[in-house]
Amino acid sequence: MKDILKAVIPVSIAVILYTYFAEGGRIDQGTWPWVILLIITISIVVYAVIRLNRRKKFPKP
Predict the structure, then answer these.
(1) Strand ranges (DSSP E) for 6-53?
(2) 27's torsion region: left (phi>0), alpha (psi -120 to 50) or beta?
(3) Measured between alpha carbons, how far is 11 from 29 in angstroms, rounded to an integer?
């Protein structure tokens, strides 16, 4: 559960801030589905990288 939160929270903040500044200070109603899809996609990738790095640090015998 911690790994999911470590992936989702920073990615959400980064994507929302990026979208806010890229849109000129406002996020339209039609943009939110794309923002949510982007957050989910990037969070899955970050979560996989976290799990992969953890597995490489402590290999199973």
Answers:
(1) none
(2) beta
(3) 20
Give residue 60's pLDDT. 63
- Dist CA 27 CA 30 (whole Å): 8
Residues 8-61 pLDDT 10s? 999 999 999 999 999 898 888 999 999 999 999 999 999 999 888 877 666 666
| 8: Cβ contacts below 8 Å, ≥ 6 apart | 39, 43
Q: Which amino acid is at 26?
A: R
Q: Which of 45, 35, 46, 37 is nearest to 6 (CA)?
A: 46
Q: Is the pLDDT of residue 2 over 80?
A: yes
